[in-house]
UniProtKB/TrEMBL annotation:
It is an enzyme of class 4 (lyase). The keyword Transport does not apply. Residues 392-408 have a biased composition (Low complexity). Fe(2+) binds at residues 203, 299. Pathway: Porphyrin-containing compound metabolism; protoheme biosynthesis. Fe-coproporphyrin III binds at residues 68, 137. Keywords: Cytoplasm, Heme biosynthesis, Iron, Lyase, Metal-binding, Porphyrin biosynthesis. It comes from the Bacteria. Involved in coproporphyrin-dependent heme b biosynthesis. Catalyzes the insertion of ferrous iron into coproporphyrin III to form Fe-coproporphyrin III. Residues 387-408 are annotated as: Disordered. It is found in: Cytoplasm. This is Coproporphyrin III ferrochelatase. Its main location: cytoplasm.
Length: 408
C-alpha cells in the first residue's frame, strides 16, 4: 500500500513546535472497593459485559483492597518528570490524565483549554505499538476533543512510541545484569545446578491486534510490529547484560494477562506454560523481566509477582523478577529527552534497527479491528487533524475489516 503525500505536520517526523502543555496519559485504576466495578465498566465500555462477569475478573483488585497500584505509581512518575522538566527550564506544565479512571483525559484536556492552552503534547505510559498501547490512546484523545467541542481549537500530538529509547531500555539492562547475579546467588545458596532462562514478559494481545500493529507499509518479524519490537529489545538487553563467559543462559519472549473468550486466539505461550517446560530442559533458575511494562502495576504485582512466582516455587525453580523502569533516573531523563525532542528538535536516539518510531502514526497503524474511530496524531482519513469532522462515512483503515471482539 502506498502512503498518500502528507504535509510536514503529518510526516513521520513532526517539526518541533511550541507545545504549551504536556500531558502524561495512562490507563488509570480503582482506588477502593467501590471503584472496582465502575472502573471495569469504563475499561470494557461499549461491549455490554454484565457486572457479574466483571466481578469475575476483579479478583486481583479485590485482593488488594480494591486499590490498583497504578495511580500512586503515576503520581510518583508525574512528580519526578515534572521536577526534571522544571530543572531544564521547560515552561509547559506537565498534566496527568487517564483513559479509564479519574483524573480522566477528557476532563484534563477541557481544563487545559479553559486555562488557555492550545497545543498539547501527550506522552503515555505505554512503550510499544498495538491497538491497546497506542491507537486506543489516540482514539481517547480524539473522543475527548469531539465530546468537549474542542476539535480545531485544541491540538493534541503525541510522543513517539519509545520501546527502544535508551531511557527505557537502560533500566532493563541494569535489571537483567543484577538479576542474573541474584539468581546465581539463590542457586548457590540452595545447592542447585542447572541453566538459567530469562523470560521477557509482556501483555498478551489478540493475534488479530498483533498482526495489525505498526504501519501497514512495513513488514515485521512474525508479521507483527508489537512482537518484533519486544524481540529486538530482548536481543539488545541480552547483548549488553550478558558477559562472554555466561554460556549457561538462554532467553525467550512470553506473554501474560490474557483475557476474553478462549475462542479468540491471543499471543502465546503464557508465562506459566513456558515455565512448566523449563525443568525438563535442564533449567534451574529463571529471571522474569517485565519488558512490556513501565511500572509495577497490577499486571506485574499480581500476574508476575503472585501467580508466576508461585508457579516457579511449585516447579522448584530459583526465580527473580527484575524491576520495571518506574522512576529510574534513566527513564525520567529519557522521557524528558523525548519531550525536548518535540519542543526543540534534536537527536532521536533508538537502540534497535526498528526505530526511532513515528511521531505521527502511519495510515492504518495499529488499526481498530471493529471500526474506524476518530483519532489524533495520525495520518488516516479518520484523524481529526486530517479531517476535522471525523472519519468520512466510507473511510475504514486498511486493516479495520474482519470482525474481532467488539470494543467501544
Ligand atoms: C497491551 C496491553 C497493555 C500494556 C500497555 C500499557 O501499559 O498500556 C495493557 C496494560 C494494562 N491493562 C490494565 C488493566 C486491564 N486490561 C484489560 C483488558 C485488556 N488489556 C489489553 C492489552 C493491554 N493492557 C487487552 C487487549 C485487553 C482486552 C481488551 C480490553 O478490555 O480492552 C482489563 C479488562 C479486564 C480483563 O479483561 O482482565 C483490565 C482491567 C492495566 C491497569 C493495571 C492496574 O490497574 O494496575 C494496564 C496498565
Ligand atoms: Fe490490559
Amino acid at each position: 500500500m502506498t502512503t498518500p503525500a502528507l504535509d510536514a505536520e503529518h510526516a513521520p517526523v513532526q517539526p518541533p513546535a511550541a507545545y504549551d502543555a504536556v500531558v502524561l496519559a495512562s490507563f488509570g485504576g480503582p482506588e477502593g472497593q467501590d471503584d472496582v466495578i465502575p472502573f471495569l465498566r469504563n475499561v470494557t465500555r461499549g461491549r455490554g459485559i454484565p457486572d457479574e462477569r466483571l466481578e469475575e475478573v476483579s479478583h486481583h483488585y479485590r485482593h488488594f483492597g480494591g486499590v490498583s497500584p497504578i495511580n500512586a505509581l503515576n503520581r510518583d512518575l508525574h512528580a519526578a518528570l515534572s521536577a526534571e522538566l522544571a530543572a531544564r527550564g521547560v515552561d509547559a506544565p506537565l498534566l496527568w490524565g487517564n483513559r479509564n479512571w479519574a483524573p480522566f483525559i477528557g476532563d484534563v484536556l477541557e481544563q487545559a483549554y479553559a486555562d488557555g492552552h492550545r497545543r498539547v503534547l501527550a506522552v503515555s505510559t505505554s512503550a510499544y505499538s498495538s491497538y491497546s498501547s497506542c491507537r486506543q490512546y489516540r482514539e481517547d484523545y480524539g473522543k475527548a476533543l469531539l465530546e468537549r467541542n474542542l476539535v480545531g481549537k485544541l491540538r493534541v500530538d503525541k510522543v513517539r512510541q519509545y520501546f527502544d529509547h535508551p531511557g527505557f531500555i537502560g533500566p532493563f539492562v541494569e535489571g537483567v545484569t543484577d538479576g542474573l547475579a541474584r539468581v546465581r546467588a539463590q542457586l548457590a545458596e540452595t545447592g542447585r545446578e542447572g541453566r538459567i532462562h530469562v523470560l521477557f514478559c509482556t501483555h498478551s494481545i489478540p493475534d488479530a491486534d498483533a498482526a495489525a500493529s505498526g504501519p501497514r507499509d512495513r513488514e515485521f518479524e512474525q508479521g507483527s510490529a508489537y512482537v518484533a519490537q519486544h524481540l529486538a529489545n530482548a536481543r539488545v538487553i541480552m547483548d549488553r547484560a550478558l558477559s562472554a563467559d555466561e554460556q549457561d543462559v538462554d532467553w525467550s519472549l512470553v506473554y501474560q494477562s490474557r483475557s476474553g473468550p478462549p475462542s479468540v486466539p491471543w499471543l502465546e505461550p503464557d508465562v506459566n506454560d513456558a515455565l512448566a517446560e523449563l525443568p525438563d530442559r535442564g533449567v534451574a533458575g529463571v529471571l522474569l523481566v517485565p519488558l512490556g511494562f513501565v511500572s509495577d502495576h497490577m499486571e506485574v504485582v499480581w500476574d508476575l509477582d503472585t501467580e508466576a512466582l508461585e508457579t516457579c516455587a511449585e516447579l522448584g525453580l530459583a526465580a527473580v523478577r527484575t524491576p520495571t523502569p518506574g522512576t529510574h533516573a534513566s527513564f525520567i531523563t529519557g522521557l524528558a529527552d523525548l519531550i525536548a525532542e518535540r519542543l526543540e528538535g534534536g537527536p532521536r536516539p533508538a537502540e534497535t534497527e526498528l526505530g526511532p518510531w513515528y511521531d505521527v502514526c502511519r495510515p492504518g497503524c495499529c488499526a481498530n479491528q471493529r471500526r474506524a474511530v476518530p483519532t489524533v496524531a495520525g495520518s488516516d482519513a479518520c484523524d481529526l487533524s486530517v479531517n476535522p469532522d471525523g472519519p468520512p462515512a466510507d473511510a475504514a483503515p486498511a486493516a479495520a475489516a474482519g470482525g474481532a471482539p467488539s470494543r467501544g
